[in-house]
# Entry
Amino acid sequence: MSCVFCGIAAGAEPASVVRDDGEVLAFLSTAPVNPGHALVVPRAHATGLADLPADTGAAIWRLARELAVALRRDAAWAEGVNLHLSDGAAAGQHVDHVHLHVIPRFAEDGLRITDARHEPPSRVELDDVAVRLRAALGG
# Structure
């Protein structure tokens, strides 16, 4: 099987499964930021978000929310949670199967998701981008 996440979903590859809801499953990351870092994936292969049926996407987010809530119930698990999904190689997607990271976080865990490379855009620039995105959405 060429897709490791398809192999996990089929039971052919090892994984520490946290929950299997049939359509989606969650298992622990082998490269966790902190203990409890899980990946939520669709059982059926979808390379990117454009390949993912909307109802399956909703099931992924539903399970990710359940995991995040469970992690936040006990400060020993997490002080906060990041949900992270990369769509495409340019965005840092390393496995070509949609997966949503549920990352337990602590204030001083060292992971930083920031961008200080440039000045924030002006309101005019933001409004221009909003117009272009609305057109891309068909509205």
Summary: Residues 60 and 93 are 17 Å apart (CA to CA). The radius of gyration is 17 Å. The chain has a mean pLDDT of 94. The chain has one domain: 4-111.
